[in-house]
């Protein structure tokens, strides 16, 4: 199983915001530069994170991004589930649908494996993933403008 690029980027953005002091509210452009992605991609992901209540974005002078209290304490499993959506690992119902779908045991096995993956992430919080040695490395990433 491989996470989507959007989920990967969202996790990097959340991690970068998690190590900042609350009063340090970088712009989306600065965070995009720190995690080495184009601004347009970061802006889409930040919007999604706002809708999930993980990130707060304030506009104008003194504005910027901040991780919410619920975002900071959120389970990594819950966040990844929200970002990835409820889809199956395989596309049994895609067009054309798989001819084995009515009698296949693979779909159930893959669904169980996917749930085991998420269950392994459930006890881990965002705070946990930015603990040492990761946190100091994240703090070393410069908040400079991206393209």
TrEMBL record:
Transmembrane segments: none annotated. InterPro entries: Tscrpt_reg_Rrf2, WH-like_DNA-bd_sf, WH_DNA-bd_sf. NCBIfam families: rrf2_super (TIGR00738). Keywords: DNA-binding. GO terms for molecular function: DNA binding; DNA-binding transcription factor activity. It comes from the Bacteria. This is Rrf2 family nitric oxide-sensitive transcriptional repressor. GO terms for cellular component: cytosol. Its cofactor is [2Fe-2S] cluster. It holds the Pfam family Rrf2.
């Amino acid at each position: 199983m491989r996470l989507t690029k959007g989920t990967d980027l969202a996790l990097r953005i959340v991690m970068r915001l998690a190590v900042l002091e609350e009063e340090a509210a970088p712009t989306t452009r600065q965070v995009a530069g720190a995690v080495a992605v184009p601004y347009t991609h970061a802006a889409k992901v930040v919007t999604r994170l706002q809708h999930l209540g993980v990130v707060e974005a304030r506009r104008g002078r003194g504005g910027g991004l901040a991780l919410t209290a619920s975002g900071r304490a959120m389970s990594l499993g819950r966040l990844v589930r929200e970002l990835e959506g409820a889809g199956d690992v395989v596309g049994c119902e895609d067009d054309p649908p798989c001819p084995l779908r009515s009698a296949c045991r693979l779909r159930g096995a893959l669904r169980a494996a996917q749930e085991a993956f998420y269950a392994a992430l459930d006890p881990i919080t965002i705070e946990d993933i930015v603990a040492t040695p990761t946190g100091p490395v994240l703090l070393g990433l410069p908040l400079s403008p991206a393209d």
